[in-house]
């Protein structure tokens, strides 16, 4: 295969790739049912209390069981991290770069098995899973290059006398807790962890309880690359108990979290009391697209479809609000509804499937409540139901890609749903469209479709979101890639002002120290 799989791949001969993926699926399915540990101080930890990972397409299928880390073990976990960090923080930055690059290479070498595992555990399509794994490796490489280009973040400063020599040096904070979500179980865990590790910190990763299997692959890539024991640990358990206790542990020096606004704000409040500690948050979105009067309608429909329904809408960057010029509303709505109805929903491990399941039964219930509201207060244009099968998919967490017509002020147009559910409403002028698009607590991604360069430039200048796209058929609001699009949330979508995938990421995990030496 002569190209990388990213989230923007549309037309390519994938026959060889699918054959490799089928072989990897056979291998992974042969390992189902294993009992796997948490990883503490470089050794497997077995508590006897098991957390089950199940296939959301086939909930009766047990993928693996993981030994939970009890809250009572966190003192030992943090102590091991602090002990390991002292040597890791003193390790030459060139060696840290070498190890993380080796881990990236191992992820790339193992990408088929890691992707197959992800498809079964998360419900991602093949290309979505392969993109996640490829992004994980690229994040490690990109962040390693940041440290290398900055020469370890050591910068000479001005002198007040000929005998004075001062350096500005960025140094690690110590121990970071990394709390990762289910939807990008490798890329987000790898990216947040890599930023901290390259900065000389130790990391305690708490993956989502929905996707512990994918974290196992990241641990082994880092360990096999030569990361010293204790520098990266993986603890398994529920967010409400283990995750909450981890981020509140006094021995944790900083937190990187991706997830809901409510949880993120609670973490931020805690880390802002007493000793203020760094807190890097990516908190979701309610992302808009504007389809102008002169838009290429086919391009707009394709871009909106892919961003609204890829990974069943379970992306922080997923498109959930579309504002269409009134002169194009009927044609656009008809076209998007047709694509939604034609989308192949089913077992995501099959090459022909575009939309897999949502992650769990709670997401299905959230979908059903949203559909009931939309039917009561607006109109269901496409979808709104659950596919029915007679085979072993019958108990899967499947819902239909759904297009609804709703007013801008409706709850469903303002609150993040994390579902394959998109609302459409009309506008008359670009002034109105920008006002509506910006009238939201969130500010993660946004897109526009217009042939008028001045309208595009106005959108770029006035849209209140950290990631902006114009005329992007591969994804109206989705598809950021390391070193290509910085992924930074504005407003309630983020906390640091400098996002993942961007050039300022690694330095956030370090604190500045001025070192003056007199000769």
Which regions contain 5 or more consecutive residues with pLDDT less than 50?
Answer: none
Helix content: 25-40%
Could you say which structural class the secondary elements and strand pairing correspond to?
alpha/beta
How many domain modules? 2
Rg measurement, Å:
23 Å
Number of distinct beta strands: 22
CATH topology of the largest domain: Aldehyde Dehydrogenase, Chain A, domain 1
CATH class of the largest domain: Alpha Beta
Question: Strand order across the biggest sheet?
Answer: 15-16-17-14-13-19-20
Strand content: 15-25%
Number of helices: 14
In round numbers, the mean pLDDT is 96
**At CATH's second level, what is the architecture of the largest domain?**
3-Layer(aba) Sandwich
Terminal Cα span: 58 Å
User: CATH homologous superfamily of the largest domain?
Assistant: Aldehyde Dehydrogenase, Chain A, domain 1
Overall 3D form: globular
Can you give keywords for this protein?
14 helices, globular, five-stranded parallel beta sheet, Aldehyde Dehydrogenase, Chain A, domain 2, 519 residues
């Amino acid at each position: 295969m002569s190209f990388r799989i990213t989230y923007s791949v549309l037309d390519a001969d994938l026959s060889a790739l699918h054959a490799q993926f089928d072989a990897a699926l056979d291998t992974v399915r042969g390992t189902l049912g294993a009992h796997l540990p948490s990883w503490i101080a470089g050794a497997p930890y077995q508590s006897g209390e098991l957390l089950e990972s199940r296939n959301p397409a086939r909930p009766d299928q047990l993928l693996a069981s993981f030994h939970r880390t009890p809250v009572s073990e966190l003192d030992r976990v943090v102590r091991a991290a602090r002990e390991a960090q002292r040597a890791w923080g003193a390790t030459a930055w060139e060696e840290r770069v070498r190890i993380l690059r080796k881990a990236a290479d191992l992820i790339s070498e193992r990408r088929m098995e890691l992707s197959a595992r992800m498809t079964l555990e998360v419900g991602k399509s093949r290309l979505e899973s392969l993109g996640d794994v490829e992004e994980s490796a690229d994040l490690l490489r990109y962040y390693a290059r940041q440290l290398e280009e900055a020469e370890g973040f050591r910068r000479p400063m001005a002198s007040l006398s000929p005998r004075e020599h001062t350096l500005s040096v960025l140094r690690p904070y110590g121990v970071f807790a990394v709390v990762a979500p289910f939807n990008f179980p490798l890329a987000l865990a790898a990216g947040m962890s890599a930023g901290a590790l390259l900065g000389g910190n130790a990391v305690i990763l708490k993956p989502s309880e929905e996707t512990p299997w994918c974290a196992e692959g990241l641990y082994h890539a880092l360990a096999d690359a030569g990361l010293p024991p204790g520098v990266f640990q993986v603890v398994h358990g529920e967010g409400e108990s283990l995750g909450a206790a981890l981020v509140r542990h006094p021995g944790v020096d900083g937190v990187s979290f991706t997830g809901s606004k409510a949880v993120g704000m609670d973490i931020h409040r805690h880390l802002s009391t007493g000793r203020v500690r760094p807190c890097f948050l990516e908190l979701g979105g309610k992302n808009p697209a504007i389809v102008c009067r002169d838009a290429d309608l086919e391009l707009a429909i394709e871009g909106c479809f892919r961003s609204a329904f890829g990974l069943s809408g379970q992306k922080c960057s997923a498109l959930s609000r579309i504002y269409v010029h009134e002169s194009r509303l009927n044609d656009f709505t008809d076209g998007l509804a047709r694509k939604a109805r034609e989308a192949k929903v089913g077992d995501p491990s099959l090459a022909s499937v575009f939309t897999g399941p949502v992650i769990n039964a709670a997401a299905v219930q959230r979908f059903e409540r949203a559909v009931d509201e939309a039917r009561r207060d607006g109109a269901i244009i496409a979808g709104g139901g659950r596919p029915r099968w007679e085979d072993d998919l019958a108990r899967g967490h499947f819902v239909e890609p759904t297009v609804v017509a709703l007013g801008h002020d409706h709850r469903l147009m303002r609150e993040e749903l994390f579902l394959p559910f998109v609302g459409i409403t009309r506008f008359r002028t670009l002034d109105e469209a920008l006002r509506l698009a910006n009238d939201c607590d969130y500010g993660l991604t946004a897109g526009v479709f217009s042939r008028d360069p001045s309208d595009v430039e106005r959108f770029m200048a006035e849209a209140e979101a950290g990631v902006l796209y114009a005329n992007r058929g591969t994804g109206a609001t989705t598809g950021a890639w390391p070193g290509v699009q910085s992924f930074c949330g504005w407003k309630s979508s983020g906390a640091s002002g400098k996002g993942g995938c961007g050039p300022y990421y690694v330095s956030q995990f370090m604190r500045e120290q001025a070192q003056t030496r007199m000769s």
